[in-house]
Amino acid sequence: AQSVAQPEDQVNVAEGNPLTVKCTYSVSGNPYLFWYVQYPNRGLQFLLKYITGDNLVKGSYGFEAEFNKSQTSFHLKKPSALVSDSALYFCAVRDGETGANNLFFGTGTRLTVIP
Amino acid sequence: DVKVTQSSRYLVKRTGEKVFLECVQDMDHENMFWYRQDPGLGLRLIYFSYDVKMKEKGDIPEGYSVSREKKERFSLILESASTNQTSMYLCASSWIYNSPLHFGNGTRLTVT
């Protein structure tokens, strides 16, 4: 069975500092990994994905994520946080071997960037 | 730009009512999904559809049904609404298997 863990419900970071939002996953086959962001009263927006290839993936709004197969992690990072990055972030995984269409989401991490 | 439109932002219904949540996408996407979002639980898949008139159960289909008569439209039906179905409902669509999901803005349903 596939699963995603976002161990931190809340992350606070000062504006201008680097930020990390953590994600670990469990799948039986190859993982297809995604990050989404949700602003208040909005649906989720796609940030980036890892399917295959380079372990460092760059996405929208200056975000990037690093796939680490040995640690089964896909942490989201940004070198310098902006107040406008404050939002709810979701990691998601699909099992590449089962062929299932289901994208399994984590419980979300609320990022607050403090001015 | 892909647009996924959910017909209502807020709905208030009474217990036992039949409720229809409508979702339309404008990019000819094959796949469409209904999720519910609850605090501390993240997003959970209710149903998805990979073609017209085709549907598959997700993780929490009980108490729900769906309809996809046209490619662009995917409806979620609560046959007899209950208070534990009070939630945020999110519709999404995607082009192919590993393409990103595009979400609507959600419908916040309250069942009293």
Describe this structure in words.
The complex is a heterodimer of chains A (115) and B (112). Chain A has no helices and twelve strands. Chain A has 115 residues and is mainly beta. Chain A has a single domain, classed as Immunoglobulin-like (Sandwich). In chain A, a hairpin with an 8-residue loop joins β10 and β11. Chain A is globular. Chain A starts with a strand and ends with a strand. The relative contact order of chain A is 0.34. Chain B has 112 residues and is mainly beta. Chain B has one domain: Immunoglobulins (Immunoglobulin-like, Sandwich). Chain B contains no helices and twelve strands. In chain B, the strands form three sheets. In chain B, strands 2, 5, 6, 7, 10, 11 and 12 form a seven-stranded mixed beta sheet that branches. In chain B, strands 3-9-8 form a three-stranded antiparallel beta sheet, with no helix packed on it. Chain B is globular. The mean pLDDT of chain B is 93. The interface between A and B is medium-sized, with 23 and 27 residues.
Q: What are its keywords?
A:
heterodimer; A: about 120 residues; mainly beta; Immunoglobulin-like; 4-stranded antiparallel β-sheet; about 50% strand; B: mainly beta
CATH superfamily of chain B: Immunoglobulins
Any idea what the radius of gyration of chain A is? 14 Å
Q: What is the oligomeric state here? A: heterodimer
Q: What is the H level of CATH, i.e. the homologous superfamily of chain A?
A: Immunoglobulins
CATH class of chain A: Mainly Beta
Helical coverage of chain B, percent range: under 10%
**What string, H for helix and E for strand, traces the elements of chain B in order?**
EEEEEEEEEEEE
Biggest interface and residues each: A-B, 23 and 27 residues
Overall structural class of chain B, as computed from helix and strand content, comes to mainly beta
CATH architecture of chain B: Sandwich
How would you concisely characterize the structure shown here?
By secondary structure, chain A is mainly β. Chain A is 0% helix and 52% strand. The interface between A and B is medium-sized, with 23 and 27 residues.
